Amino acid sequence: MLNGQEVAYELKKSRRAGNLRISVGCDANLAVTAPWFVPSGTAENFLRQKADWILSKLDYWQKRQPLIKLTGGGLDYKRNKTAARRLVVSEVARWNGFYHFSYRRISIRNQKTRWGSCSQKGNLNFNYKIIYLPKPLRDYLVVHELCHLRQPNHSKRFWDLVAETIPDHKERKKELKKIIF
User: Fold this and answer.
1) What is the C-alpha separation between 141 and 14, in angstroms, rounded?
2) Do both 33 and 54 map to the same domain?
3) Angle CA(162)–CA(25)–CA(14) in degrees, nearest 5?
4) Within this chain, do residues 47 and 81 fall inside the same structural domain, yes or no?
5) Where are the beta strands (DSSP E) in the chain?
6) Helix, strand, coil percent values for the chain (each to nearest 5)
7) Between the CA of residue 53 and those of 23, 26, 60, what are the distances in Å?
8) Which residues is 153 bridged to in the sheet?
9) Could you read off the pLDDT tens digit of each residue along the chain, which spans 181 residues?
């Protein structure tokens, strides 16, 4: 019970955890990660101490209406990885026709929280679920990761690079945040 409201949570014990940690996922699920030696009563007390924060996050995620809720596990990934690779390679080549950045490798992954990333070595990584996105959001993702090849941060220079081809990048970013995995 948190402030008179019954709240379900998952307690995860971990040998790697150094402290108690709370997470509220976009599916409005509450989880507590605790070091393996911490008793469950200590975790419950920790939850009570953070009740206001927890309830506000749960309320936020329950009210938020996703544009799309993407689900799919390993089988969906295996079925769609090749199609995602073809799509991403084609789109990277198309957008890089403007930017002319050099990159090393393109990887397609089954990530739970990221749409894409760019490594320091110049490798581009994309979530296979990019194939489920509308074209404007796919374009934004590809350009976003390409621009990280030149600017490995989110500075004004980075966003100016993105705006050269995606002037409405702020709106597209907002739309992308409405999509939950």
Assistant:
1) 34
2) yes
3) 115
4) no
5) 10-14, 21-24, 30-35, 106-109, 116-118, 124-127
6) 45, 15, 35
7) 11, 15, 11
8) none
9) 888 888 888 899 988 888 999 988 766 788 899 999 988 889 889 999 999 999 998 888 777 655 566 667 788 899 999 999 999 999 999 999 999 999 999 999 998 889 999 999 999 999 999 999 999 999 999 999 999 999 999 999 999 999 999 999 999 999 888 887 6
Return the residue matching tokens 């938020």: 64
Q: How many domains does the chain have?
A: 2
Q: What is the pTM of this model?
A: 0.67
Instruction: Give the residue numbers spanning the domain of 22.
Output: 10-63
- In DSSP notation, 25-51 reads -TT--EEEEEETTS-HHHHHHHHHHTH
Tokens coding 64: 């938020």
52 and 121 in a single domain? The answer is no
